[in-house]
Amino acid sequence: MQSDQTLDEQVIAWQSSHDEIWAERLMTKYRPFILKTVASVSGRYIEIENDDEFSIGLQAFYEAMNRFDHRGSFLAFAKLVIASRIKSYWQKENRNQTVCLDELDVVADDVDQLINELSMAQDIQRFSGVLADYNLTFSLLATKSPRHRDTREAVLSIAKRIAASERLLEMLRKKKRLPIREIVLQLAVSPKVVKRNKVYLLAAVLVFTQPDTEMAAWLRAVSGDPVR
Q: Where are the domains of the chain?
């Protein structure tokens, strides 16, 4: 591992070597982070020598090092894994505890689900910047989303067709708005549907142009496509 690498890059590089000396150094360096996370999850002061939760936190941090796949931040992922493992420990011990993380309302047991949740959250954060380029916000979307399922499905179907058209996408990116007339003519769709749902439609197109995100996978599933 090179000193000029980010922590995320170092963890990915370590996965090829599993250098235990380096792993021990990293866990020692980030012991305060692990202790703070365990205390936050537990909602109380943690004694390193006497609390099982701290040992579980160390083990979970090491597990996170092995499972991190460069989606998002390693430390954010490690926090999720630590929370999940501590909750699992409490369940086995039949202890009634409340998991408290500012970033999560609910902590799932399954780490793979946590990965997806983290990826979605990061997608949303990045996507807010994309929306801003088109003078859109999530709060605006909340007020402009179609109320009826049939309408949403119709709009999403149009969005997928727009996203598949280089010509329409080029016009959209250039104007920073939907080329409504061209969409209606090229796709032979109802101008009323496009105009009434232009905010939701534009946002859906922007999602579909980022195919490798969790948001796009979710939106495809909502619109009836298999998740690829």
A: 7-109, 128-222
Q: Which of 196, 126, 97 is nearest to 155 (CA)?
A: 196
**Chain centre to alpha carbon of residue 19:** 29
Alpha-carbon span 27 to 147, nearest angstrom:
49
3-state secondary structure of 125: helix
Q: How many CA atoms lie within 13 A of 78 on its CB side?
A: 26
Q: Which residues pair with 115 in a beta bridge?
A: none
Contacts of 123 (CB under 8 A, 6+ apart): 210, 213, 214, 215
Alpha helix stretches (DSSP H) within the chain: 7-17, 20-29, 31-42, 52-67, 74-92, 111-133, 138-144, 149-163, 166-175, 180-187, 191-196, 198-208, 214-222
Residues 6 or more apart from 173 whose CB is under 8 A from it?
none
Grouped pLDDT means (10 residues each) for the chain, 228 residues: 78 91 90 88 78 88 89 85 85 56 38 50 68 82 79 89 94 94 95 92 87 55 45
Give the CA count within 13 Å in the CB-facing half-sphere of 214: 17
